[in-house]
């Protein structure tokens, strides 16, 4: 993609509240091993496979696409994907997913973010994944005046990264619940979290141009968040790799692009108008418009198919 002039701030309304994160597309090295993991361990279904590519999900559209590249390798110290997050419909389904990981003795890191219950794990090639359920009744985790603030529902403070009470969560299951069943319908990509080179430039791209709601920039923590429709975050971004981190080389494992799904073509056109006004480079690609954020993370803008 050709370089473009520095984008200018665009006056706009907020992105449509029904906008969501869609398919995440990864480069992998060993397709067989990755497909085994994403099906047997994570619980996704194989939707299709053609040559060096495959798509997985929970029975509807693809949540994850994989493209195998011979010699692809994990490159540290670059921008790219920190993790993608699968949102489960409720605590019970999260309990089933975590129970499967425990039954398989697959290493994972259960965490209580108050407004979400979650666990983190890595796939066999080192890509971090979050599995979570929204639990806003348990508390809040937000950015206030540049600081990350977490509080329990009763108002008591928290660091927002407490150990998850796994025993209590697994209590959501009944003896008849099977742990080997795939992830349920209704599972979605809840959010994506990126490594970036600069917080302000990234915020400008996602908030000022694409028009996601600004959910706060915690400068001391090196993280920012944006969303649609008031959700806690659909896109998180951090500079934990380091300010000014370079993008990964073409042969690196990890993110090819993630999809931002607008509810219809009219809303997609509104976003594309702002993109054009900003002077950003945009390319038609596989049913959408492919952009690069300031850290060269791929963003594919699409419209939800009607009917």
According to CATH, what is the topology?
2,3-Dihydroxybiphenyl 1,2-Dioxygenase, domain 1
| Biggest sheet architecture | 9 strands, mixed
Query: Low-confidence segments, ≥5 residues, pLDDT <50?
Result: 1-11
Count of helical segments?
5
Assembly state: single chain
What does this structure look like?
There is one protein chain. By secondary structure, this protein is an alpha+beta fold. 18% of the residues lie in helices and 37% in strands. The chain has one domain: 2,3-Dihydroxybiphenyl 1,2-Dioxygenase, domain 1. It is built from 5 helices and 20 strands. A 9-stranded mixed β-sheet has the order 12-6-7-8-5-13-16-15-14, with helices on one face. It is globular, with a radius of gyration of 19 Å. The model is unreliable at 1-11 (pLDDT under 50).
Describe, in short, the structure shown.
With 307 residues, the chain is of the alpha+beta class. It is 18% helix and 37% strand.
Label this structure with key terms.
alpha+beta; 307 residues; globular; 2,3-Dihydroxybiphenyl 1,2-Dioxygenase, domain 1
Give the SSE layout.
Blueprint: E1 20-28, H1 31-41, E2 45-50, E3 53-57, E4 62-68, E5 80-87, H2 91-103, E6 109-112, E7 116-122, E8 128-134, E9 139-144, E10 147-152, E11 157-158, E12 162-163, H3 166-170, E13 188-195, H4 199-209, E14 213-218, E15 223-227, E16 235-238, E17 254-262, H5 265-278, E18 283-285, E19 288-292, E20 298-303
